[in-house]
């Protein structure tokens, strides 16, 4: 923007150097800020240059220029600009063409009546919960109502952000509510579909749990890769300017932009698919469509990121390595192993995370439910495999895979043991446990992206870390193998305890914190 430049605290030294070595304020081109911004970019500072669009920004040098600038400013339709600015610039196909054309006017209607974004967010949650209740009836009319209400909930979900941008009412609590409630709404709807199917004699809890695990692990891949590459614009030899050439060429062809955004099945497309299939088919078909769609999206995005990582030469920054270590959610057992192995895991941590996850899942699947071999493997996984994976700084080209491998091992072990258990309702209890743990992992992502770092160390210790919870579930399976529904009760109690501890700490943090929560569903590969 002509005449205006702001630098965050970490860029102030680079700004001082640019001003010290740059041109004098009377530079011939008259654009000191542009010259300084170019100098900052040369030093590796990521410079954000806001697009003005129809807005006008100028630094007039004389009366005639001031008159022209004033006329240009007066010619701008401020209300039209506010409405356009309320909509995110890069959104999914369904949201852009089927929701935003009218949701922006709903946002304006809410603003003129004094409604806040948080109130709209809460209304979206309540609407989704009612939709889940309708799906739980198991009746065709309930399914149709559930589909319609889920779409209405998504309209409100888009409206709350547009209202915040339209009315300039941003808040930490609002960002956290928006990010958190999306997970709660989707998980609740899955549960409603499973309950509705059970009323008709169709047990789809395993499919519901599988769909939730796939979606969550896919998001973890997104978050880990993005955090690992946050500093790439400033890294020499990074993939930011090399392996993205194909993506840039594809973006030049209009229809490929929308196709690539739809392929990753973002929240708009995903909820539209769920709503339509719920209304016209059965819960089993809904979950199979989710599993197939999420699997394809995960393969597509992960393949693209693996290709980028193959060409990577520069090591990751210390900040990126810390973010990956925080996302790993390593508890006391893994930290003990890391101290034992020292720095031996440098640049090969992802191989041990992969080996440990594969071994843990294979053991849980191959050995009988409650077998002590699973407990032994869980202990070995926690100390050796997990400890070695995080024993060195996660700066390798593929170390962003460490958190996703850990998530797959933990969630998958819980699911496998619940499915193999003879205890009634063990899978629904496992669904609740995975949902509670997944919330903890999403909350960690939001904190890191808000610039506040990981949750406190005591929370990671008291929740056991990913390896501690995996071992605990394996021990419970071994102790309660022949005790009726005790395994179900144990999983339920563990889910409730984890949810209570994590949610209370999360609410305390976001209410008192000044950091923004960042909600992101990933990006194209």
UniProtKB/TrEMBL annotation:
Transmembrane segments: 285-307, 348-368, 374-394, 489-511
UniProt-listed GO biological process terms: phospholipid biosynthetic process
One Pfam family, short name: CDP-OH_P_transf
Segments forming domain DUF5941: 318-525
Entry keyword set: Membrane, Transferase, Transmembrane, Transmembrane helix
Gene Ontology MF, one: phosphotransferase activity, for other substituted phosphate groups
Gene3D superfamilies: 1.20.120.1760
Keyword Nucleus tagged: no
UniProt superkingdom: Bacteria
Family named by the database record: Belongs to the CDP-alcohol phosphatidyltransferase class-I family.
Protein name, UniProt field: DUF5941 domain-containing protein
